[in-house]
Design brief:
CATH architecture of the largest domain in chain A: 3-Layer(aba) Sandwich
Distance between the termini of chain B: 18 Å
Distance between the termini of chain A: 60 Å
Structural class of chain A: alpha/beta
Number of strands of chain B: 2
Order of helices and strands of chain B: HHHHHHEEHHHHHHHHH
Shape of chain A: globular
Strand order of the largest sheet of chain A: 10-9-8-11-12
CATH class of chain B: Mainly Alpha
Radius of gyration of chain A: 24 Å
Largest interface: A-B, 39 and 38 residues
Number of domains of chain B: 1
Oligomer: heterodimer
Largest sheet of chain A: 5 strands, mixed
CATH architecture of chain B: Orthogonal Bundle
Structural class of chain B: mainly alpha
CATH class of the largest domain in chain A: Alpha Beta
Number of domains of chain A: 2
Shape of chain B: globular
Strand order of the largest sheet of chain B: 1-2
Number of strands of chain A: 12
Number of helices of chain A: 15
Chain lengths: ~350, ~350
């Protein structure tokens, strides 16, 4: 603990001595740990993480080596020392970016009823961590670098405690609402700026191709994106999540209703009543159905069936394990695939 | 007071009281050790001792000294604080149902905190240090309001009126809390919701330092006023007859109870029931003499909350449930049992 603090203060010699001592202590306690603790698995990575940071702190910054420890300022103004080569990265709810950059996180975001299903293949061997980042769970994964998405999730002293476990960088809402900026920033932190730029270019190319194909098929038709969960409909903001993909990147026409929501009270997904939906004039509806069991009642109601797009049979339904609720190069790319599959036959 | 206690000699009584307090202290120490070993990452007793002696790994030190110990200490302090506050309020109002949460004091403190969270961005460092002060202000204002509404010049502070007005004011504040919390964004709402349910979230030595002065000053102050509480508990006429400045003493003690409750709410949220049950339990064990009742109360409250918090951390790993809910789950059946017995 002390050695880490000293390292941050710049006393590198002391830090390496501290790390050496620590390694000695760790190896001395080794038997004890494996003998009587179920957390033994968690202890081992801690030791290896120390070992990987040790050479970095000994190496002077003057060498031409591409990866050096760097100090950056995060969205909340914390000075964060990013390890030269983070090996055990934790970035809950930012896994999309890590996967794009070829980084496997030590744990992935989860809530009681699931994970980010659209990334299930990429992250199938990654253990889960609760969204609220329980301190002991974080400690157990022994991260050496930690990225947090939002200021609000680490308020009231949680940041300080997380930062004791590993250097913690808060991305901030300002950046995280734009996936391109997020990817570039995370790429910069993890020394993978080139990969980040490449991924964005590839995505933009894919979006442009898809846009050309789609516009020849549906022309000037408008599309709505709805999310059905717990018997309530939500409509997406045109600048966020799948809204940014469909209206922004693919240039599809926005239906009425979205623009009627006052800008000040817009969230990513905005609640909308079934009665209001009756006025929806969209030609196509993309429906993310998170309500397989109870939702059928609503989808059989006369009001829903009276909506023009529904009457015309232009509803494209996706289960909640599709990427429409998320944001990132992978999520958006999968959303484009879904749009292509639905509209271009 | 039971007959056996009346007939026992002071010396015998003192031995018995010392034995009870020592037993409670031993139980707390035992729970303390169990709590140190409890958590997502198992630390065996030997590992805990190694770590306490400074020989643990960095990870073990972090878990024990930075995450578990502050939280354990806060549980003890908050439990003792709520219990003593509840005991004072029960004796002052001569109503067995009085406690900071039934009197709406917790709600008032919570409301002040909620207002603060709603209108001050959480990204600044200020909230941690401002929250206790906001909670105290809210608790103080609510208590004043309830006192003014419940007090009648002709018959003083009627126990029933105090409780009823407390419940009414509490319900009103709760309604405003709901309205306000619906306006919050999800992250803040979640924080507020678990906070109101009573979660010991201030697992940090800074919170211990913020709470400690209040407990260290106000709990001994209550012990010091034990005799006054004995007399006030008899109703208004007798203390006046004995020449006690009733109104002044009552306001002073009430202020102490409110300050205790407010400072505890600030770090633990609305943990009810401890302030209600701990005095009841303590009274059953040691009787109604405040010289012994108050210390017993403090110990029972500390033990109760530490136990509840340990269960809260353990039962749904890796996530935890708010401690206040555990207290309510344990507390509600016990309270029903008390009610059933008192009828018989």
């Amino acid at each position: 603990m002390y050695s880490i603090n000293l390292k941050r203060a710049g006393h590198r010699k002391l830090a390496s001595i501290g790390l050496l001592t620590l390694t000695l202590i760790l190896s001395a306690c080794g038997n004890n740990n494996s003998a009587n603790s179920t957390g033994g698995a968690a202890n081992a990575p801690a030791a290896s993480a120390d070992a990987t940071t040790a050479p970095a702190s000994e190496a002077p910054a003057a060498t031409t080596a591409p990866a050096v420890e760097k100090t950056v300022t995060d969205a909340m103004g914390h000075k964060v020392t990013v390890p030269a080569n983070p090996q055990r990265v934790l970035a809950s709810y930012l896994e999309d970016y890590l996967v794009v950059l070829g980084v496997t996180p030590v744990a992935q975001w989860s809530v009681t009823n699931g994970i980010q299903d659209y990334l299930a293949d990429e992250l199938k061997d990654v253990p889960t961590i609760s969204f609220d980042l329980p301190l002991e769970a974080v400690t157990g994964f022994a991260p050496d670098f930690h990225i947090v998405q939002s200021e609000a999730s680490v308020q009231n002293g949680l940041y300080d405690q997380l930062n004791k476990i590993a250097p913690t960088y808060v991305l901030g809402d300002e950046i995280s609402k734009d996936w391109r900026k997020s990817l570039l920033k995370i790429g910069e932190l993890l020394n993978k700026s080139a990969e980040a730029k490449q991924a964005i270019a590839a995505y933009d190319q894919k979006a442009a191709d898809a846009k050309a194909k789609i516009s020849t098929v549906i022309g000037d038709d408008s599309v709505a994106i709805l999310w059905l969960v717990k018997k309530n409909f939500y409509i997406v903001d045109e600048t966020r999540s799948s809204g940014a993909v469909v209206y922004g990147d693919l240039g599809l026409k926005l239906p009425n209703l979205v623009t009627e929501i006052p800008a000040a009270s817009r969230a990513t997904w905005n609640p909308i009543s079934l009665e209001k939906l009756a006025e929806l004039t969209a030609d196509h509806i993309f429906l993310v159905n998170s309500d397989k069991t109870e939702g059928s009642e609503i989808l059989n109601s006369p009001i829903w069936k009276g909506i023009p797009a529904v009457k015309a049979g232009n509803v494209h339904e996706f289960a909640s394990n599709h990427s429409w609720l998320y944001s990132g190069a992978i999520a958006n790319s999968k959303t484009i695939d879904d749009v292509l599959n639905s509209l271009v036959k | 007071m039971s007959r056996s206690q009346l007939s026992s000699t002071p010396k015998k009584r003192r031995t018995r009281e010392t034995a009870i307090l020592s037993l409670l202290a031993v139980l707390i120490v035992a729970m303390f050790i169990i709590s140190m070993n409890t958590g997502l990452i198992r630390l065996s007793p030997t590992e805990v001792i190694h770590t306490l002696l400074g020989e643990g790994s960095q990870q073990q030190k972090l878990i024990l000294f930075d995450f578990r110990l502050p939280r354990i200490v806060i549980s003890l302090l908050v439990g003792a604080g709520f219990a003593v506050a509840g005991c004072i309020l029960q004796s002052l109002s001569r109503n067995a149902l009085a406690e900071p949460s039934t009197l709406g004091i917790n709600a008032g403190a919570g409301f002040a905190v909620l207002i603060f969270i709603s209108f001050v961005p959480a990204t600044t460092a200020a909230p941690i240090f401002m929250l206790p002060l906001m909670a105290l202000a809210g608790a103080g204002l609510t208590a004043t309001l309830i006192y003014v509404l419940a007090f009648r010049r002709e018959d003083g502070l009627s126990p029933t009126r105090l409780i009823l007005i407390g419940i009414a004011v509490g319900a009103g504040i709760y309604a405003f809390q709901l309205i306000l919390s619906l306006r919050l964004d999800p992250e803040n709402y979640q924080f507020v919701a678990t906070w109101l349910a009573g979660k010991i979230w201030g697992g940090d030595w800074r919170f211990v330092m913020a709470l400690l002065p209040w407990i260290l000053i106000l709990v001994p102050f209550a012990f010091y006023k034990a005799r006054v509480l004995n007399v006030l508990n008899l109703g208004d006429e007798i203390p006046v007859g004995l020449g006690l400045p009733v109104e002044r003493e009552r306001v002073l003690l009430m202020a102490a109870a409110v300050a205790l409750a407010g400072s505890c709410v600030a770090v633990s949220g609305g943990i009810g029931f401890v302030g209600l049950i701990a005095p009841h339990l303590a009274r059953r064990i040691v009787g109604p003499r405040h010289q012994i009742l108050l210390p017993a109360c403090a110990l029972v409250g500390a033990l109760l909350l530490l136990t509840a918090d340990t269960i809260a951390r353990w039962i749904l790993q890796p996530s935890e449930i708010p401690t206040g809910i555990v207290v309510a789950i344990i507390g509600a059946p016990y309270f029903l049992y008390l009610l059933a017995r008192s009828k018989a």
